[in-house]
Amino acid sequence: MPFSAMTxxxxxxxxxxxxxxxxxxxxxxxxxxxxEVFLPTLQKLLTDRDNANHLPQIxxxxxxxxxxxxxxxxxxxxxxxQLLLAAYAQGDRRFVLITGTDTLSxxxxxxxxxxxxxxxCIVVTGSMxxxxxxxxxxSYDIDDHSDAWDNLSDSLKLxxxxxxxxxxxxxxxxxxxxxxxxxxxxxxxxxxGHSRAAYPANSYIKNLPDTRRQHWLDxxxxxxxxxxxxxxxxxxxxxxxxPNDTEVMTSQLQALLSQPPCGIILLGFGAGNVPYSQAxxxxxxxxxxxxxxxxxxxxxxxxxxxxxxxxxxxxxxxxVIAGGRLTIPAIYARLLWLLLRYDNPTRRRQRWLNNxxxxxxxxxxx
Length: 366
Fold this sequence. Notes:
By secondary structure, this protein is α/β, with parallel strands linked by helices. Helix content is 37%, strand content 15%. The protein contains 11 helices and 14 strands. A 6-stranded mixed β-sheet has the order 4-1-5-6-7-8, with helices on both faces. Strands 11-12-13-14 form a 4-stranded parallel β-sheet, sandwiched between helices.
Protein backbone atom coordinates (compact mmCIF):
# COMPACT_ATOMS: atom_id res chain seq x y z
CA MET A 1 0.00 0.00 0.00
CA PRO A 2 1.49 3.40 -0.94
CA PHE A 3 2.21 5.46 2.13
CA SER A 4 0.57 8.50 0.53
CA ALA A 5 -2.74 6.63 0.36
CA MET A 6 -2.92 6.00 4.10
CA THR A 7 -4.96 8.01 6.56
CA UNK A 8 -5.07 8.00 10.32
CA UNK A 9 -8.31 6.12 10.95
CA UNK A 10 -7.95 5.71 14.72
CA UNK A 11 -7.76 8.31 17.45
CA UNK A 12 -5.44 6.59 19.93
CA UNK A 13 -1.71 7.33 19.60
CA UNK A 14 0.72 4.94 17.96
CA UNK A 15 2.83 3.18 20.58
CA UNK A 16 6.54 3.47 19.72
CA UNK A 17 9.03 0.90 21.01
CA UNK A 18 12.78 1.44 20.83
CA UNK A 19 14.90 -1.72 20.99
CA UNK A 20 18.29 -0.45 19.83
CA UNK A 21 20.20 -1.25 16.66
CA UNK A 22 21.92 1.00 14.14
CA UNK A 23 18.97 3.39 14.26
CA UNK A 24 19.96 4.72 17.69
CA UNK A 25 23.75 4.47 17.35
CA UNK A 26 26.01 7.51 17.67
CA UNK A 27 29.67 8.50 18.06
CA UNK A 28 33.04 7.17 16.95
CA UNK A 29 33.02 4.21 16.98
CA UNK A 30 29.28 3.82 16.62
CA UNK A 31 27.50 2.52 19.70
CA UNK A 32 23.81 2.50 20.68
CA UNK A 33 22.71 5.40 22.85
CA UNK A 34 20.91 4.48 26.03
CA UNK A 35 17.15 4.87 26.10
CA GLU A 36 17.55 7.66 28.66
CA VAL A 37 19.51 9.71 26.11
CA PHE A 38 18.04 8.58 22.83
CA LEU A 39 14.31 8.68 23.54
CA PRO A 40 14.16 12.35 24.69
CA THR A 41 16.28 13.25 21.67
CA LEU A 42 13.97 11.38 19.30
CA GLN A 43 10.91 12.88 20.98
CA LYS A 44 12.27 16.39 20.41
CA LEU A 45 13.07 15.64 16.77
CA LEU A 46 9.60 14.22 16.22
CA THR A 47 8.02 17.27 17.82
CA ASP A 48 10.14 19.69 15.78
CA ARG A 49 9.29 17.96 12.51
CA ASP A 50 5.72 16.93 13.25
CA ASN A 51 3.92 19.80 11.51
CA ALA A 52 5.93 19.49 8.31
CA ASN A 53 5.63 15.70 8.11
CA HIS A 54 2.06 15.27 9.35
CA LEU A 55 3.12 12.43 11.62
CA PRO A 56 0.56 10.73 13.86
CA GLN A 57 0.42 11.24 17.58
CA ILE A 58 2.76 8.85 19.38
CA UNK A 59 3.27 7.49 22.86
CA UNK A 60 6.27 5.60 24.23
CA UNK A 61 5.99 2.01 25.36
CA UNK A 62 8.62 1.35 28.03
CA UNK A 63 11.10 -1.31 26.99
CA UNK A 64 14.04 -2.44 29.09
CA UNK A 65 15.57 -4.69 26.42
CA UNK A 66 17.86 -2.60 24.24
CA UNK A 67 20.79 -4.38 22.61
CA UNK A 68 22.35 -5.32 19.30
CA UNK A 69 19.84 -7.48 17.47
CA UNK A 70 22.54 -9.99 16.51
CA UNK A 71 22.47 -10.98 20.20
CA UNK A 72 18.73 -11.71 20.29
CA UNK A 73 17.62 -15.12 21.53
CA UNK A 74 14.21 -16.83 21.84
CA UNK A 75 13.95 -15.27 25.31
CA UNK A 76 14.23 -11.83 23.75
CA UNK A 77 11.60 -12.60 21.12
CA UNK A 78 9.26 -13.69 23.92
CA UNK A 79 10.04 -10.45 25.77
CA UNK A 80 8.71 -8.37 22.88
CA UNK A 81 5.72 -10.66 22.49
CA GLN A 82 4.86 -10.16 26.18
CA LEU A 83 5.42 -6.42 25.99
CA LEU A 84 3.10 -6.04 23.01
CA LEU A 85 0.53 -8.47 24.39
CA ALA A 86 0.25 -6.53 27.65
CA ALA A 87 -0.26 -3.24 25.79
CA TYR A 88 -2.76 -4.85 23.42
CA ALA A 89 -4.71 -6.17 26.42
CA GLN A 90 -4.88 -2.60 27.75
CA GLY A 91 -6.55 -1.40 24.56
CA ASP A 92 -3.60 -0.25 22.44
CA ARG A 93 -3.70 -1.63 18.92
CA ARG A 94 -1.10 0.19 16.81
CA PHE A 95 2.63 -0.17 17.34
CA VAL A 96 5.96 0.69 15.71
CA LEU A 97 8.98 -1.33 16.84
CA ILE A 98 12.48 0.00 16.05
CA THR A 99 15.11 -2.72 16.11
CA GLY A 100 18.41 -3.75 14.52
CA THR A 101 18.49 -5.10 10.99
CA ASP A 102 20.43 -8.32 11.69
CA THR A 103 17.40 -10.17 13.05
CA LEU A 104 14.66 -7.72 12.06
CA SER A 105 13.02 -10.17 9.64
CA UNK A 106 13.19 -12.99 12.21
CA UNK A 107 11.55 -10.91 14.93
CA UNK A 108 8.88 -9.59 12.57
CA UNK A 109 7.99 -13.09 11.37
CA UNK A 110 7.86 -14.37 14.96
CA UNK A 111 5.47 -11.62 16.04
CA UNK A 112 3.31 -12.40 13.00
CA UNK A 113 3.01 -16.01 14.15
CA UNK A 114 2.40 -15.08 17.78
CA UNK A 115 -0.37 -12.54 17.08
CA UNK A 116 -2.15 -14.53 14.36
CA UNK A 117 -5.92 -14.29 14.70
CA UNK A 118 -5.92 -10.87 16.37
CA UNK A 119 -6.56 -7.36 15.05
CA UNK A 120 -3.29 -5.87 16.28
CA CYS A 121 -1.25 -3.61 13.97
CA ILE A 122 2.54 -3.88 14.35
CA VAL A 123 5.10 -2.26 12.06
CA VAL A 124 8.75 -3.27 12.49
CA THR A 125 11.50 -1.05 11.13
CA GLY A 126 15.13 -0.04 11.57
CA SER A 127 17.83 1.58 9.49
CA MET A 128 21.11 0.87 7.77
CA UNK A 129 22.58 4.18 8.91
CA UNK A 130 22.12 5.91 12.29
CA UNK A 131 19.48 8.58 12.66
CA UNK A 132 21.92 11.04 14.26
CA UNK A 133 24.91 12.66 12.60
CA UNK A 134 28.07 11.63 14.47
CA UNK A 135 30.03 14.46 12.83
CA UNK A 136 28.01 16.93 14.92
CA UNK A 137 29.32 16.65 18.46
CA UNK A 138 27.64 19.59 20.24
CA SER A 139 24.05 18.60 19.51
CA TYR A 140 21.99 15.69 18.25
CA ASP A 141 21.08 16.43 14.64
CA ILE A 142 19.48 14.19 12.04
CA ASP A 143 21.90 12.83 9.45
CA ASP A 144 20.34 13.83 6.13
CA HIS A 145 22.14 10.94 4.41
CA SER A 146 20.57 8.37 6.73
CA ASP A 147 17.55 6.22 5.89
CA ALA A 148 16.40 6.24 9.53
CA TRP A 149 14.05 9.24 9.48
CA ASP A 150 12.24 8.14 6.32
CA ASN A 151 11.87 4.59 7.61
CA LEU A 152 10.44 5.84 10.90
CA SER A 153 8.09 8.34 9.23
CA ASP A 154 6.79 5.71 6.84
CA SER A 155 6.31 3.23 9.67
CA LEU A 156 4.39 5.70 11.82
CA LYS A 157 2.08 6.55 8.94
CA LEU A 158 1.57 2.87 8.17
CA UNK A 159 0.72 2.15 11.80
CA UNK A 160 -1.60 5.14 11.90
CA UNK A 161 -3.67 3.57 9.13
CA UNK A 162 -4.33 0.75 11.56
CA UNK A 163 -4.48 -2.18 9.13
CA UNK A 164 -4.37 -5.39 11.14
CA UNK A 165 -1.28 -7.56 10.87
CA UNK A 166 2.48 -7.45 11.32
CA UNK A 167 4.42 -5.65 8.61
CA UNK A 168 7.99 -4.60 7.99
CA UNK A 169 8.58 -1.14 6.54
CA UNK A 170 11.95 -0.33 5.04
CA UNK A 171 13.34 1.68 2.14
CA UNK A 172 10.01 3.20 1.14
CA UNK A 173 8.18 -0.14 0.95
CA UNK A 174 6.25 -2.40 3.29
CA UNK A 175 5.45 -6.12 3.24
CA UNK A 176 3.80 -8.77 5.41
CA UNK A 177 6.47 -9.73 7.94
CA UNK A 178 6.52 -13.41 7.01
CA UNK A 179 7.72 -12.63 3.45
CA UNK A 180 10.66 -10.39 4.29
CA UNK A 181 14.37 -11.16 4.14
CA UNK A 182 17.55 -9.12 4.23
CA UNK A 183 19.28 -9.20 0.85
CA UNK A 184 22.09 -6.65 1.24
CA UNK A 185 24.48 -6.06 4.12
CA UNK A 186 25.18 -2.37 3.39
CA UNK A 187 22.75 -0.90 0.87
CA UNK A 188 19.85 1.23 2.11
CA UNK A 189 17.49 -1.03 0.13
CA UNK A 190 18.52 -3.89 2.38
CA UNK A 191 15.24 -5.80 2.55
CA UNK A 192 12.70 -7.20 0.16
CA GLY A 193 9.42 -9.05 0.47
CA HIS A 194 6.19 -9.64 -1.38
CA SER A 195 2.44 -9.27 -0.87
CA ARG A 196 1.34 -12.81 -1.82
CA ALA A 197 1.31 -13.87 1.80
CA ALA A 198 -0.85 -16.62 3.25
CA TYR A 199 -0.92 -17.68 6.91
CA PRO A 200 -0.40 -15.86 9.25
CA ALA A 201 -0.99 -12.72 7.19
CA ASN A 202 -4.45 -13.91 6.12
CA SER A 203 -5.45 -14.72 9.71
CA TYR A 204 -5.74 -11.14 10.92
CA ILE A 205 -9.19 -9.67 11.50
CA LYS A 206 -9.97 -6.17 10.31
CA ASN A 207 -12.21 -5.33 13.25
CA LEU A 208 -12.30 -7.97 15.96
CA PRO A 209 -15.45 -7.83 18.15
CA ASP A 210 -14.71 -7.19 21.81
CA THR A 211 -15.86 -10.64 22.90
CA ARG A 212 -13.70 -12.44 20.35
CA ARG A 213 -10.72 -10.23 21.19
CA GLN A 214 -11.09 -11.07 24.88
CA HIS A 215 -11.29 -14.79 24.09
CA TRP A 216 -8.11 -14.45 22.03
CA LEU A 217 -6.38 -12.57 24.85
CA ASP A 218 -7.50 -15.05 27.49
CA UNK A 219 -6.07 -17.90 25.45
CA UNK A 220 -2.73 -16.14 25.00
CA UNK A 221 -2.42 -14.95 28.57
CA UNK A 222 -3.14 -18.43 29.90
CA UNK A 223 -0.02 -19.64 28.09
CA UNK A 224 2.38 -16.82 29.02
CA UNK A 225 4.21 -18.61 31.84
CA UNK A 226 4.48 -21.80 29.80
CA UNK A 227 5.85 -19.96 26.76
CA UNK A 228 8.37 -18.03 28.87
CA UNK A 229 9.65 -21.21 30.53
CA UNK A 230 9.99 -23.07 27.23
CA UNK A 231 11.98 -20.23 25.65
CA UNK A 232 14.95 -21.27 27.79
CA UNK A 233 15.14 -24.67 26.10
CA UNK A 234 13.89 -23.90 22.58
CA UNK A 235 16.47 -24.86 19.96
CA UNK A 236 16.40 -24.54 16.20
CA UNK A 237 19.27 -25.83 14.08
CA UNK A 238 20.19 -25.27 10.45
CA UNK A 239 21.91 -27.90 8.30
CA UNK A 240 23.36 -26.37 5.14
CA UNK A 241 23.81 -28.62 2.11
CA UNK A 242 27.27 -28.32 0.56
CA PRO A 243 28.96 -30.42 -2.14
CA ASN A 244 30.21 -32.86 0.50
CA ASP A 245 29.91 -36.56 0.95
CA THR A 246 26.49 -37.28 2.48
CA GLU A 247 28.24 -38.63 5.56
CA VAL A 248 28.91 -35.03 6.64
CA MET A 249 25.22 -34.08 6.83
CA THR A 250 24.30 -37.48 8.23
CA SER A 251 26.70 -37.06 11.13
CA GLN A 252 25.41 -33.52 11.76
CA LEU A 253 21.85 -34.79 11.93
CA GLN A 254 22.75 -37.80 14.06
CA ALA A 255 24.36 -35.48 16.60
CA LEU A 256 20.94 -33.86 17.17
CA LEU A 257 18.95 -37.06 17.60
CA SER A 258 19.58 -37.44 21.33
CA GLN A 259 18.56 -33.87 22.12
CA PRO A 260 15.02 -32.89 23.23
CA PRO A 261 12.61 -32.36 20.32
CA CYS A 262 13.78 -29.34 18.35
CA GLY A 263 13.36 -27.65 14.99
CA ILE A 264 15.77 -28.43 12.15
CA ILE A 265 15.97 -26.41 8.94
CA LEU A 266 17.45 -28.42 6.07
CA LEU A 267 18.84 -25.92 3.56
CA GLY A 268 18.82 -27.72 0.25
CA PHE A 269 20.10 -26.77 -3.17
CA GLY A 270 17.80 -25.09 -5.69
CA ALA A 271 14.20 -26.22 -5.22
CA GLY A 272 15.10 -28.16 -2.09
CA ASN A 273 17.35 -30.85 -3.52
CA VAL A 274 19.21 -32.85 -0.90
CA PRO A 275 21.82 -35.54 -1.72
CA TYR A 276 20.48 -39.00 -0.92
CA SER A 277 22.05 -41.77 1.08
CA GLN A 278 20.46 -44.62 2.99
CA ALA A 279 22.17 -43.46 6.17
CA UNK A 280 20.76 -39.94 5.82
CA UNK A 281 17.29 -41.34 5.12
CA UNK A 282 17.48 -43.46 8.25
CA UNK A 283 18.64 -40.47 10.30
CA UNK A 284 15.65 -38.46 9.07
CA UNK A 285 13.33 -41.30 10.04
CA UNK A 286 14.87 -41.38 13.52
CA UNK A 287 14.59 -37.60 13.83
CA UNK A 288 10.85 -37.88 13.20
CA UNK A 289 10.43 -40.73 15.71
CA UNK A 290 12.31 -38.68 18.32
CA UNK A 291 9.95 -35.73 17.91
CA UNK A 292 12.12 -33.38 15.87
CA UNK A 293 10.56 -31.30 13.10
CA UNK A 294 12.70 -31.14 9.96
CA UNK A 295 11.73 -28.46 7.44
CA UNK A 296 13.27 -28.26 3.98
CA UNK A 297 14.11 -24.80 2.67
CA UNK A 298 16.03 -23.52 -0.31
CA UNK A 299 19.38 -21.79 -0.25
CA UNK A 300 18.05 -19.66 -3.10
CA UNK A 301 16.61 -16.35 -1.90
CA UNK A 302 13.47 -16.66 -4.03
CA UNK A 303 11.17 -19.41 -5.24
CA UNK A 304 11.09 -21.83 -2.32
CA UNK A 305 11.05 -25.61 -2.64
CA UNK A 306 9.10 -28.13 -4.72
CA UNK A 307 9.03 -31.87 -5.35
CA UNK A 308 9.69 -31.56 -9.09
CA UNK A 309 13.09 -33.26 -8.90
CA UNK A 310 13.77 -36.77 -7.67
CA UNK A 311 16.87 -35.32 -6.01
CA UNK A 312 14.60 -33.44 -3.62
CA UNK A 313 11.35 -35.41 -3.45
CA UNK A 314 12.86 -38.46 -1.70
CA UNK A 315 13.17 -36.68 1.65
CA UNK A 316 9.40 -36.17 1.97
CA UNK A 317 9.03 -39.95 2.28
CA UNK A 318 10.99 -39.63 5.53
CA UNK A 319 8.73 -37.07 7.21
CA VAL A 320 10.58 -33.93 6.14
CA ILE A 321 8.12 -31.05 5.78
CA ALA A 322 8.38 -28.74 2.79
CA GLY A 323 8.91 -25.09 3.67
CA GLY A 324 7.07 -23.99 0.52
CA ARG A 325 7.82 -20.38 -0.36
CA LEU A 326 8.54 -19.37 3.22
CA THR A 327 11.78 -17.48 3.81
CA ILE A 328 14.37 -18.85 6.22
CA PRO A 329 13.41 -16.21 8.86
CA ALA A 330 9.75 -17.21 8.48
CA ILE A 331 10.57 -20.91 8.85
CA TYR A 332 12.64 -20.17 11.95
CA ALA A 333 9.84 -18.04 13.39
CA ARG A 334 7.15 -20.65 12.79
CA LEU A 335 9.28 -23.44 14.26
CA LEU A 336 10.06 -21.32 17.31
CA TRP A 337 6.43 -20.42 17.92
CA LEU A 338 5.33 -24.05 17.61
CA LEU A 339 8.03 -25.16 20.05
CA LEU A 340 6.90 -22.52 22.53
CA ARG A 341 3.15 -22.80 22.12
CA TYR A 342 2.40 -26.52 21.71
CA ASP A 343 3.38 -29.20 24.16
CA ASN A 344 4.10 -32.22 21.99
CA PRO A 345 5.60 -33.04 18.56
CA THR A 346 2.32 -34.37 17.13
CA ARG A 347 0.44 -31.14 17.81
CA ARG A 348 3.30 -29.04 16.43
CA ARG A 349 3.42 -31.05 13.25
CA GLN A 350 -0.36 -30.96 12.80
CA ARG A 351 -0.35 -27.20 13.31
CA TRP A 352 2.43 -26.68 10.78
CA LEU A 353 0.69 -28.80 8.15
CA ASN A 354 -2.59 -26.97 8.78
CA ASN A 355 -0.85 -23.63 8.29
CA UNK A 356 0.87 -24.77 5.10
CA UNK A 357 -2.41 -26.09 3.76
CA UNK A 358 -3.85 -22.61 4.23
CA UNK A 359 -0.93 -21.27 2.21
CA UNK A 360 -1.51 -23.76 -0.62
CA UNK A 361 2.09 -24.93 -0.55
CA UNK A 362 1.89 -28.52 0.60
CA UNK A 363 3.85 -31.21 -1.18
CA UNK A 364 1.95 -34.45 -1.57
CA UNK A 365 3.63 -37.74 -0.96
CA UNK A 366 4.23 -39.81 -4.04
